[in-house]
Amino acid sequence: MTTNDIVKPENLVYAKTPVLSDAVMHYCPGCSHGVVHKLVAEVIEDLQIQEQTIGIAPVGCAVFAYNYLEIDWQEAAHGRAPALATAVKRLHPHKYVFTYQGDGDLAAIGTAETIHACNRGENIVIIFINNGIYGMTGGQMAPTTLEGMKASTCPSGRNHERDGFPLKMSDLLALLPGTCYVTRQSVHTPGNVRKAKKAITQAFNNQKAQKGTSVVEIVSSCNSGWKMSPVQANKWMEEHMFQQYPLGDLKNI
Amino acid sequence: MAKVRGAIVVDSAVCKGCALCVEACPAQVIQLSVELNAKGMNYAAMALPDACTGCANCAMVCPDSCITVYRVKI
Ligand code: SF4
Ligand code: SF4
């Protein structure tokens, strides 16, 4: 049996979801953003909510997310995505509203907006990409940078006496009464991709059930910023990032 | 147990040659090509097509959604 015998429409088992546009993503080769975009798009397709979903794009590498998913979008000022999502969801309570934010956006300039939206229990989904670095602006230290991890603004590695400790945002958010679901996932292996998709599905279903704020953190790699190959970056993430940011549900009620 | 055969089709113009699919394939089906695409990247291609089971692991991890997967029972 040759490849040509197998490659027929009736044998199709996996193809790109039509919720993703045909635009070629601007992300670096091997960037976790592309996988997470795909999962959000697949969940929107599976739940058949393409016409009812409004995404809030961040500032950071994912600033152009609105080019890649064929849904309605708003672009937020830096860090303000949860505040904008609050407004959109309150004006359109029957729509599905999610933010898509990196750690520089959610855990630095947007800390206040994130905490207060979660504390109010806004009925939204927050997708949080944590790669421990400011990817877009050149790999500077972020609040989430690991101790000892090198970044362009801490070339000898983060030192807590000088730079403070890595901020575990999801742990903080899980303490707030407004969150119903806080989980930490990754997308570096096929098994983790499947689990992350389940988590994103649950988050959107929570919104339908009006349960409060769902936060899905994806511990991600930034291979360009970390100055590694994509495969090496995933290994480094397993060895180092998961110690500080262990995977699993922090809250699920 | 029914045997399965799979095949993948890579959109070689979109592929960025990140090799995450090469790493994810449990059957070592995929390798990066020697040729470059228009982006200047060594794109992914089936090197051992007979070993593919159509499990779609490669497509799951591809950040650029450029892998389509087919499978038949034989
Ligand atoms: S479908 Fe599975 S076996 Fe086939 S190339 Fe992809 S990962 Fe390998
Ligand atoms: S994972 Fe996708 S982009 Fe990366 S080498 Fe494989 S086919 Fe190309």
UniProtKB/TrEMBL annotation, chain A:
Transmembrane spans:
none
Keyword annotations of the record:
Oxidoreductase
Q: Name one GO molecular function term.
A: thiamine pyrophosphate binding
Q: Which processes are annotated in GO (biological process)?
A: cellular respiration; small molecule metabolic process
Annotated coiled-coil positions are none
Annotated ranges, domain Thiamine pyrophosphate enzyme TPP-binding: 74-218
| Name of the protein described by the UniProt record | 2-oxoglutarate ferredoxin oxidoreductase subunit beta
Source organism (scientific name): Breznakibacter xylanolyticus
UniProtKB/TrEMBL annotation, chain B:
Task: Identify the keywords attached in UniProt to this record, alphabetized.
Answer: Iron, Iron-sulfur, Metal-binding
Membrane-spanning segments: none
One example of the protein's molecular function in GO is: metal ion binding
Note the SUPFAM superfamilies from the entry.
4Fe-4S ferredoxins
Identify this protein by name.
Answer: 2-oxoglutarate ferredoxin oxidoreductase subunit delta
Q: Which organism is it from?
A: Breznakibacter xylanolyticus
Using the record's annotation, list all stretches that form the 4Fe-4S ferredoxin-type domain.
6-35, 43-72
Known InterPro entries for this protein? 4Fe4S_Fe-S-bd, 4Fe4S_Fe_S_CS
